[in-house]
């Protein structure tokens, strides 16, 4: 059974850091374009970052320079390193996997083929 399971969320103060992980089972991440999207209360889903099969990365302007996406094919896990966190980063974060080429998927990460249950990130003093 195909499953993506996120972990690593929590409560952090502004300026702090978190590292989100997404472990996959039932699929081989190397076969997919991968990404993270988030959804804050009362807001639309927002694509955050994506990584291609060849490990090229893209970021939303709102997180560029602060977040870093990576993957470990041996562990079948994708990560999102988040630094200099701001209150506006507060949201549920979802990892996603998609069959499309990355240049297509990265334009609409939130419409991925597969996504996990999400992990809550709260940035507050």
In words, what does this structure look like?
- The chain has one helix spanning 102-105, and strands at residues 3-7, 10-12, 18-25, 33-39, 46-51, 57-59, 67-72, 77-82, 91-98, 114-115, 119-123.
- With 125 residues, it is mostly beta strands.
- Strands 2, 4, 5, 6, 9, 10 and 11 form a 7-stranded mixed beta sheet that branches. A 4-stranded antiparallel beta sheet has the order 1-3-8-7, with no helix packed on it.
- A hairpin with a 4-residue loop joins strand 7 (67-72) and strand 8 (77-82).
- It is globular and about 40 Å long.
Index terms:
mainly beta, 11 strands, 47% strand
- Content-based structural category: mainly beta
Distance between the termini: 40 Å
Order of helices and strands: EEEEEEEEEHEE
**Main sheet?**
7 strands, mixed
- Secondary structure: helix percent: under 10%
How many E strands?
Answer: 11
Put simply, the count of helices is 1
Categorize the overall geometry: globular
Radius of gyration: 13 Å
User: Mean pLDDT, as a whole number?
Assistant: 95
Beta fraction: over 45%
Low-confidence stretches: none
What's the helix and strand layout?
Layout: E1 3-7, E2 10-12, E3 18-25, E4 33-39, E5 46-51, E6 57-59, E7 67-72, E8 77-82, E9 91-98, H1 102-105, E10 114-115, E11 119-123
Parallel strand pairs: 2-11
Antiparallel strand pairs: 1-3, 3-8, 4-5, 4-9, 5-6, 7-8, 9-10, 9-11
Short recap of the structure:
The chain has one helix at 102-105, and strands spanning 3-7, 10-12, 18-25, 33-39, 46-51, 57-59, 67-72, 77-82, 91-98, 114-115, 119-123. It is mostly beta strands.
């Amino acid at each position: 059974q195909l499953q993506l399971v996120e972990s690593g969320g929590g409560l952090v103060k502004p300026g702090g850091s978190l590292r989100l992980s997404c472990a996959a089972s039932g699929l081989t991440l190397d076969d997919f374009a991968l990404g993270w999207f988030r959804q804050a209360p009362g807001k639309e889903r927002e694509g955050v970052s994506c990584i291609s099969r060849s490990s090229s990365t893209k970021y939303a302007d709102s997180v560029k320079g602060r977040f870093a996406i990576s993957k470990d094919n041996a562990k079948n896990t994708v990560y999102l390193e988040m630094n200099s966190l701001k209150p506006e980063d507060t949201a549920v974060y979802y990892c996603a996997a998609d069959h499309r080429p990355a240049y297509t998927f990265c334009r609409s990460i939130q419409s991925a083929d597969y996504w996990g249950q999400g992990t809550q990130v709260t940035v507050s003093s």
